[in-house]
Amino acid sequence: MQLIDTHVHINFDVFEKDLKLLQDRWQEAGVIHLVHSCVEPEEFASIQRIADKFSELSFAVGLHPLDVNKWNEDTAAQILKLASSDERVVAIGETGLDFYKADNQKQQEKALLAQLEIARKLNKPVIIHCREAAANLREIIADFWHKQSPLQGVMHCWGGTVEETNWFLDLGFYISFSGIVTFKSAKSVQESAKIVPQERLLIETDCPFLAPVPKRGKRNEPAYVRYVAQYLAELRNTSIEEIAEQTTSNARRLFGILPQ
Q1: 10 Å Cβ neighbour count for 237?
Q2: What whole-number distance in Å separates Cα of residue 116 and Cα of residue 122?
Q3: Residue range 14-59, pLDDT digits in tens
Q4: In this structure, how many other beta carbons lie within 10 angstroms of the beta carbon of residue 199?
């Protein structure tokens, strides 16, 4: 059984001392590839260094919506240059909108649009963070489709309702579920996970955050994506092997990940 964790942050300090042990555990769990997201372009060098150590890692470059106070007139050019500088860059992001923790809506939207344009220019998918902003995000992406061109991408660590899930499925996006789907209180997310077509389903940890049951409350890590796959299998009345096969195939297709 082979799994791909489509969203990790293993460059964070909490992993600094045991990265090799982390790799041993993810390999033991069947994780064959990881997609490392990027919170801000200044992380790029540290992510590259980790990818130099672990050949099973691809990565993205972008600016998180909660960090858009760092956006300036040079940021778009910086992201474009970095994204073009390394063939291991498979996506732009994470970008998106977060109105739960911040109210700088116009600033977030400006940074998001600029990153969508970079993704279009480079023909790369976008990794989208969305929290309490689904309606605004849907409108922006639909308008981009109309005025520019369709985009591919993933709604990462998805926490939306069934209605919101269908919005982004209609826009051609993949939907990625994290440990949140295993939480007892996440009934709406679980209902959303039931309706995503198998060819649009992805799994992730978003580690070090949001460890799934039965590891909830602990530091999350790539090996734990197996628990997400297992829970989705039970929720969707299928086997973990089928979830693994389909989500791995989907991740390869979206991010252009080739078998090693």
Answers
A1: 7
A2: 10
A3: 999 999 999 999 999 999 999 999 999 999 999 999 999 999 999 9
A4: 10
